[in-house]
Design goal:
Blueprint (H helix, E strand, L loop, with lengths): L1 E3 L6 E4 L10 H19 L6 E5 L2 E4 L12 E13 L2 E14 L9
Antiparallel strand pairs: 1-2, 3-4, 5-6
C-alpha cells in the first residue's frame, strides 16, 4: 500500500507487510491506519491563522470542523527573514513567538 500526495504525486508512505501463517485483516488494517495517521500528522500539520486578539484571548480560524478540542496547544509563528535566491524570494523563515491554548468550553459565552 502507498500513501500518495495527490498534488505532487510523491509517495509519502510506502507500506509493506509480509505475513506467514493465518492472516488477520482487522489487525493489518489497524496497523496500517496508525502508520497512515502518523504520516499525515507529520507531513501535513494543521495550520491556521490568528483572526484577532482581545486581551489575553486569541481568536483563530480553526474550530470543531477541524477537530479542534479544548486543551489543544498551538504554536504561534510569524514570518521571519526572507529566503532569497538570485534576488527572488523563495519563502520566509518561520519564527516561533509563543503558544496559545484552546480553552473551548472554559470560556464564558455571552
Amino acid at each position: 500500500m502507498r500513501l500518495i500526495d495527490t498534488e505532487t504525486t510523491a509517495i509519502v508512505l510506502p507500506l509493506v507487510r509480509h505475513e506467514t501463517g493465518p492472516i488477520d485483516p482487522a489487525e493489518i488494517a489497524v496497523d496500517f491506519s496508525r502508520k497512515i495517521n502518523a504520516a499525515i500528522k507529520e507531513n501535513y500539520p494543521l495550520r491556521g491563522r490568528i483572526a484577532g486578539i482581545d486581551g489575553d484571548l486569541t481568536i483563530i480560524n480553526l474550530g470543531k470542523k477541524h477537530n479542534i478540542v479544548p486543551g489543544m496547544v498551538f504554536h504561534v509563528r510569524t514570518e521571519g527573514k526572507p529566503i532569497e535566491l538570485e534576488g527572488r524570494i523563495l519563502g520566509y523563515r518561520e519564527v516561533k513567538d509563543g503558544q496559545t491554548e484552546d480553552l473551548g468550553e472554559k470560556l464564558a459565552r455571552p
